[in-house]
Design brief:
With 53 residues, this protein is mostly beta strands. Helices cover 0% and strands 38% of the residues. Strands 1-2-3 form a 3-stranded mixed sheet, with no helix packed on it. This is Glycosyl hydrolase family 25 protein.
Length: 53
Amino acid sequence: MTITQSISFIVYYYDNSQSFSDFQSFGGWTKPSIKQYQGDVAECSTQIDRNFY
């Protein structure tokens, strides 16, 4: 029996800008997948992180 597993990784990074315009390629990645632009934001009586896709 042969088991094949495919794993894909996403590039996730953080700063205070809601865009990918500052992304620089590294480690074989040419574009990001998701970016956190605000962390620990209080909304509707809970803490959330704001992300840009």
